[in-house]
Design brief:
The structure is a homodimer. Helices cover about 45% and strands about 15% of the residues of chain A. Chain A contains eleven helices and ten strands.
Chain lengths: ~280, ~280
């Protein structure tokens, strides 16, 4: 079997797989790259994870994910910053272990409003300050911080960075090495998406491109409202051309949070993802 | 009983009430104004609705709603435009029947992607063309068209106008009398909300201000993810100050789509809305 040379399987798409299983399934399906999550890395420990990645022959396209740093100054915020520094180190180690072309990119999700708070402006400011504090440490480690704007559906409880334009504003405040994630699920609706993708490309800040579809009706758990490319409403040809025209030529991850997908045997998922990518994304590359 | 002089009960908050019931409940709860929906008006006919509104002594703050005009050129689009012209006439008639200070404002929801289409750019363009076509007719009737940007959660299936900035872009293309709706549920997450509310105010385009809360976890039907002010994550003081600073001094509607609210006796809802408004919105006026 083979998959498109730029296709990467984000591990969240086969959420219940261990790191070893995920690497095996991804390699066996003919992919060249994988997007790794921290939890399965932690399950085996970083040293073992590095060995497994090196043995897989796969590129590492990103590590998901750091962030969640909207807390007020205090112990919780300090813990978040410390944890993000560890995530930076993990990113560097895993990318170094991956096949040539691996990308030391750490995806950052800002986090939601602190419990009981409605101060969205303040939470956003604290997220920006956290990125600014981490940026020199990441640059030293050769790691790109990639701020992921999240669909506004998650603004309260998961990610207070809501648009690509906002993510770019933060990145520009925080340093030349800070980038952004362009994820179709999160940005497809944005009237400014064409201008902001071009802006991100012009400053070399597209750190990764992730694809999955927006499906309706939304499932009861809206976090899982994602589908294989082609199953929903996203115009992948349009968005992929924007990203390509903006100069991004790296790996493209398929990342699908969806209970039905998670309940499907991993090799079936890997195969289905590769076919959906070929049909919906590849023609626009 | 009395309610804040600027408070208006949007009829969708007591969805199952007939027009007569809604007017009675709203007046009995001491409100000065009501936001009327077209369906209960149609149930009794426009002539009877005009009589009922006139007898109620209430101001009419808006008529909800027109729009749903993203179809490709053809009979469906023509039907939508014809229906919107009727909605303009209804708006003028009901506002004329209402107490002094009634506002001839027709709320417009753009509609979603046509069945099977992923061409969001095209749907948005057609929505703009429809507003442009209706604008002279509305101006002639003395009716303000109020484009309602909808939370991006509805971009696929309900409203392709997703941000206040986008709604203002459309309004500015369509004429000086075209306005926008500022609805906290739809705009609270927007990083540009302060700038765009100010922009809307500067050009006199804030046609109405609607308030309800964003609650989490989202219910299974995400259309109903709205709560009484104070029950969720929206910073009403912040947003209300923005709208006030932008010069808006008209009625403020509370519009809540929520099954539990709909299942509550209407007078209880009217009372609860008035108290929530006093606690969350009024202090910022």
């Amino acid at each position: 079997m083979s998959a498109h040379p730029r296709l990467s399987l984000n591990q969240a798409t086969i959420k219940y797989a261990s790191l070893a299983e995920a690497l095996d399934v991804t390699a066996a399906a003919g992919y060249g790259a994988i997007g790794v999550w921290r939890e399965p890395v932690a399950d085996v420990g970083l040293d073992r994870a590095v060995e497994l990645v090196a043995a897989s022959g796969l590129r590492v396209s990103t590590l998901c994910r750091g962030g969640f740093f909207t807390a007020e100054p205090g112990p919780e915020r300090q813990r978040a910053l410390d944890d993000n520094r560890r995530a930076v180190e993990e990113t560097a180690a895993l990318a170094a272990a991956g096949a040539p072309g691996s990308r030391p990119v750490l995806v950052l999700v800002a986090g939601g409003l602190p419990q009981g708070s409605r101060d969205l402006v303040g939470a956003r400011l604290r997220a920006q300050e956290a990125v600014a504090e981490l940026a020199p440490f990441a640059a030293e480690a050769g790691v790109t911080l990639a701020i992921e704007p999240m669909n506004p559906i998650y603004a309260a409880d998961r990610g207070v960075v809501s648009t690509l334009g906002q993510a770019l504003d933060v990145a520009e405040q925080c340093g030349p090495e800070v980038g952004v994630v362009v994820d179709t699920f999160h940005v497809w609706w944005d009237p400014q998406v064409a201008a902001e993708v071009a802006r991100a490309g012009a400053s070399g800040r597209i750190a990764t491109y992730q694809v999955c579809d927006w499906i309706t009706p939304l499932p009861a758990d809206s976090l899982l409202a994602r589908g294989y490319p082609g199953d929903g409403h996203v115009d992948f040809a349009h968005l992929t051309r924007l990203v390509t025209d903006a100069g991004y030529d790296g790996d493209i991850e398929v990342e699908i949070f969806n209970q039905q997908v998670w309940d499907t045997p991993y090799p079936e998922v890997a195969d289905r993802v590769a076919r959906a990518f070929d049909a919906e994304v590849a023609p626009a590359l």
